[in-house]
From TrEMBL:
Binds 1 Mg(2+) ion per subunit. Belongs to the mandelate racemase/muconate lactonizing enzyme family. It holds the Pfam family MR_MLE_N. Mg(2+) binds at residues 176, 202, 225. It comes from Borborobacter arsenicus. The active site is at residues 150, 247. This is Dipeptide epimerase. Keywords: Isomerase, Magnesium, Membrane, Metal-binding, Transmembrane, Transmembrane helix. The keyword Protease does not apply. InterPro entries: DgoD-like, Dipeptide_epimerase, Enolase-like_C_sf, Enolase-like_N, Enolase_C-like, Mandelate_racemase_C, Mandelate_racemase_N_dom. Residues 131-223 form the Mandelate racemase/muconate lactonizing enzyme C-terminal domain.
Length: 328
């Protein structure tokens, strides 16, 4: 039988409100791709991101525009040439990986590694808020080994950092400014981060305006997020960043993300594997990508009040590899 591609827009409520330097959201809006080939079905999920000019409707339209090619048998590597990096390519690519696994009877991981994947320790994200509110979030989650702390608005980041460190003294902390720091405050903020034992600072300055990072000390390792999408971006980051945050929605799928991860390792960058706020279907391929990563931030489903069923297994901050019923 011929392949049949379908695309759906779905919404999942977030538990409370998720806030970063660019704004707040109360639901995760995702686009899901299903590719059926006879009795076998492959699925993939993406999260369109307005920061990169994406909309739910635009991404769904781009996916639908690939229907004829996918149904005619277009493969993952040809897909990289047919669509630019981004959410639309991610959903299709992950659905093709899943379909290959279902059709062959071989889990995706067997094509990526000689050893089965293991459970990973993921960071848990604290939404941006006033220092006292962030301290309360940190205290509530102080038992988690890794916390990712959203900052980057106004002049209270030093107070936010100190408040979270005091409230969760035993947690390893990642700061994520989401491009919210400036040339005027970055040195002070980095110095305070170092003083407080922060493990990593993520994307402190706007992408394209981060050249200053080449000329200032890095008392804490600095990780590129918005500044890196594909492997071809890496040469531009040498001397600016110490680590890269790889997200499937930025890279445009697992196929491209593997190329980015492997090239980044060759160039000496530390690896973080991160996510947008999505369901377990979006996290599943990222769990396989994150095997051996230095930092893992795949807590999307933990931020939702409702996830897919079946979903990934989360036990505290440990996330288990996906079962075939979910993906891969």
């Amino acid at each position: 039988m011929a392949r049949v591609l379908s695309v759906n827009i779905e919404r999942f409520p977030i538990a409370g409100t998720f806030t970063i330097s660019r704004g707040s959201k109360t639901q995760a809006e995702v686009v899901t791709v299903t590719i059926r080939d006879g009795d076998h079905i492959g699925r993939g999920e993406c999260v369109p991101y307005t920061r990169y000019g994406e909309t739910i409707e635009g991404v769904a339209h781009a996916i639908a525009g690939m229907r004829a090619d996918i149904e005619s048998g277009l493969g993952r590597h040809a897909l990289i040439e047919a669509l630019p990096a981004g959410a639309a390519r991610n959903a299709i690519d992950c659905a093709l990986w899943d379909l290959e696994a279902k059709t062959s009877g071989r889990p995706v991981w067997t094509g990526l590694s000689d050893t089965p994947p293991r459970a990973l320790e993921t960071a848990y994200t604290l939404s941006l808020a006033a220092p006292e509110a962030m301290a309360a979030q940190a205290h509530e989650n102080a038992m988690r080994p890794v916390l990712k702390v959203k900052i980057g608005v106004g002049d209270e980041d030093v107070e936010r950092i100190r408040a979270v460190v005091q409230a969760a003294p035993d947690s390893r902390l990642i700061l994520d400014a989401n491009e919210g720091w400036t040339e005027d405050n970055i040195r002070q903020n980095l110095a305070v981060a170092a003083e407080c034992g922060i493990a990593l600072v993520e994307q402190p300055l706007p992408a394209g305006k981060d050249g200053i990072l080449r000329h200032i000390p890095h008392p804490v390792p600095i990780c590129a997020d918005e500044s890196v999408h594909e492997a071809r971006n890496l040469n531009e980051l040498v001397g600016l960043y110490d680590a890269v945050n790889i997200k499937l929605d930025k890279a445009g799928g697992l196929t491209a993300a593997i190329l980015l991860r492997d090239r980044a390792r060759e160039m000496g960058f530390s690896i973080m594997v991160g996510c947008m706020v999505g369901t377990s279907l979006a996290m599943a391929p990222a769990v396989l990508l994150a095997q051996g990563a230095d930092f893992v931030d795949l807590d999307g489903p933990l931020l939702l009040s409702q996830d897919r069923v079946p979903g990934l297994g989360y036990h505290g901050s440990l996330v288990s590899p996906p079962q075939a019923e979910l993906w891969g």
